[in-house]
From TrEMBL:
Residues 263-331 form the Protein FecR C-terminal domain. It comes from the Bacteria. One of its GO terms (molecular function) is sigma factor antagonist activity. Gene3D superfamilies: 2.60.120.1440, 3.55.50.30. InterPro entries: FecR, FecR_C, Ferrdict_sens_TM. It holds the Pfam family FecR. This is Ferric-dicitrate binding protein FerR (Iron transport regulator). Transmembrane segments: none annotated. Residues 122-216 form the FecR protein domain.
Length: 334
């Protein structure tokens, strides 16, 4: 770390009191990804200690983006003036300058850097479960092989929103100003809530949403049109890869969130469904040898902390055999 770039200097910068030379030094310092993490950490601390009032900037953001699209030749000029990450505003006009600086950076850099700039990423590996508590008190339990993106600038400018890739259980706190909490997925599904408990599973084969408490509204694309659907406790919604929607009532105390406690419950589960679960949670592929296995179904409840523990318990109870070669398990009917 450049010894001249320290917390004291950055706090001056956040307050809008840094010189042009200091801003240039900070810009060079921020080229290191580790320094960017430190920068955002200290910015979040400064914002907590120096709360500011900002009106809803959405119309300003939309107008700015529209201008940039209509005048593409202006982008470089704007970028040259606003290459620095946003300083925390002292007044409202400085706040908009900070927002414009963020948008200029988003315009300059590719998708990967834009995501890194705007979001902090949390990831679970295969066979891993993680619990997070967000700044607003919302609790999130992430299943294996899941990524959660949370805005670096907290939920300051607009409704609370996160991006989910994988599966997670949310216990959402009610915001002081009735702010919505929005979960977005890469499958063009949006879950909109005020305060409730629900689980979202968004994988390659589609989405599943189970509502435990409260109420939520789903928004999704169907034939290029945004559709909305309300859910009440006990509703289970599935959305296939081709966009087909199915909603049905289920027992909210069933097995849909057993994974939080490392328990797996099967009630007529096919081996193909088991294969999908092993791919999603463990990165392991299942192969089946024997014609009898095509219509084989699994029943029972098992506690397991690893793929090895689970496949051992399943094959033992079903009188099956298995062998493993790296990331492939072959199940055999003896």
């Amino acid at each position: 770390m450049n010894p001249t770039i320290n917390k004291t200097l950055l706090r001056l910068h956040f307050a809008g009191n840094s010189s042009s030379l200091q801003r240039r030094m900070i810009s060079e310092w921020l080229k290191d990804p580790h320094n960017r993490e430190l920068y955002y950490e200290w910015l979040a601390e400064w914002e907590r200690q120096n709360p500011q009032f900002l009106p809803d900037p959405t119309p300003k953001l939309e107008a700015y983006v529209a201008h940039m699209l209509a005048h593409p030749n202006d982008r470089q000029e704007v970028a040259d003036e606003m290459i620095m990450p946003p300083s925390a505003p002292k007044t409202t006009w400085k706040a908009w300058l900070g927002v414009a600086a963020v948008l200029a950076l988003l315009t300059l850099f590719g998708a990967q850097y834009r995501e890194e700039l705007w979001y902090r990423s949390y990831h679970t590996a295969y066979n891993d479960i993680r619990t997070l508590t967000l700044d607003d008190g919302t609790r999130v339990v992430m299943n294996s092989n899941t990524t959660l993106l949370i805005p670096r600038f907290k939920f300051r400018f607009m409704d609370r929103h996160v991006v989910l890739r994988g599966e997670a259980n949310f216990a959402v706190t009610h915001g002081p100003n009735d702010e919505k909490f929005i979960v977005k997925t890469d499958n063009d599904l949006k879950v909109v809530v005020l305060g409730t408990e629900f689980t979202v599973n968004s994988r390659r084969r589609g989405d599943k949403v189970l509502l435990n408490k409260g109420s939520i509204q789903l928004e999704y694309l169907q034939e290029k049109e945004v559709k909305k659907l309300l859910m009440t406790p006990g509703d289970l919604l599935t959305r296939s890869q081709d966009g087909h929607i199915e909603k049905r009532k289920t027992n909210i105390h069933q097995n849909y969130t057993d994974w939080i406690n490392n328990r797996f419950t099967f009630d007529g589960t096919s081996l193909q469904e088991l294969n999908h679960m092993f791919q999603d949670n463990y990165g392991i592929f299942l192969k089946f040898e024997g014609k009898e296995l095509h219509n084989f179904s699994l029943y029972g409840s098992y506690r397991a902390k690893s793929a090895e523990e689970l496949i051992l318990a399943l094959t033992k109870s079903a009188n099956l055999q298995y062998s493993q070669n790296q990331d492939t398990i072959t199940i055999i009917q003896p």
